[in-house]
Amino acid sequence: ALALGRGVIILAAHFGSWELPSITAALHGYPTLVLAREQGWPRLNRLLTQYRESKGCRVVTKGFPVRKLIRGLKEGRMVGIFADQDGGRHGILWPFFDRIASTAPGTFALSLSTGAPILPIFMIRRKGPAHLLVAEDPLPIPEEGSMEDRLRQGVAAYLSVLERYVRRHPDQWLWLHRRWKSTPERRVLLLSDGKAGHGAQLQGFSERLEE
Question: CA 193 to CA 190: how far, in whole Å?
Fold first, then answer.
């Protein structure tokens, strides 16, 4: 992917030992620009940044981060981004595990504007200290069509890959936390104790709630 000369977007998830791919890449001579959110505690943030940059990577947190990422891609570098969290009300809505979820489109917009391919990356924990690093094929984003449709296709392709890995290794995906926070779907689970008449009351309640 790097041989194309447009840089590479490494699309990671909070899956397995997700801090290791960028360190592994740096040890093999490919220092990565990593987009990260600043922690609330300054001392913890400095410690994490120190660890992440210890082998040659560079953490980008603020100060026009998108501009820095674009510059890095134009220089033919790898850029690491996470996209498995809730994308908020401005995200793209697409099914994830059979429920509509919001996903931030920034990664895919960055790819379309720079021509950099997107490689989904997964660092899978094995027995003991062993890990398996997997680089998937570049996400198939159409070269034609409206920007919105192309972004949606990019999101759909990524969620399909992510869901496949989570189904294979459900114990290794961390970010269940409010992943469907911005979904327009609303569900209510009604539990019955099995007593006579309570089922009818639940049914009546659910009908009123739906109205």
Answer: 10
**HSE of 57, CA atoms in CB hemisphere, 13 A:** 27
Q: In sequence order, what are the residues at sequence separation of 6 or more whose Cβ sits closer than 8 angstroms to the Cβ of residue 112?
A: 141, 147, 150, 151, 154
Distances (CA, A) of 210 to 21, 43, 99, 199: 46, 49, 19, 17
Cα separation of 121 and 15, whole Å?
9
Question: Which one, of 158, 157, 156, 175, lies nearest residue 16 by Cα?
Answer: 175
User: CA 125 from chain center: how many Å?
Assistant: 18
Report the greatest alpha carbon distance in the chain.
71
Q: What is the pLDDT of residue 38?
A: 86
Q: What is the pTM of this model?
A: 0.84
E strand or H helix at 161 = helix 147-168
User: What pLDDT, on a 0 to 100 scale, did the predictor assign at position 148?
Assistant: 94
Pick out the chain residues at pLDDT < 50.
none
Q: Residue 39: its pLDDT value, please?
A: 84
Q: How far apart are CA 200 and CA 198, in angstroms?
A: 5
Which two tokens mark 158? 């990524």
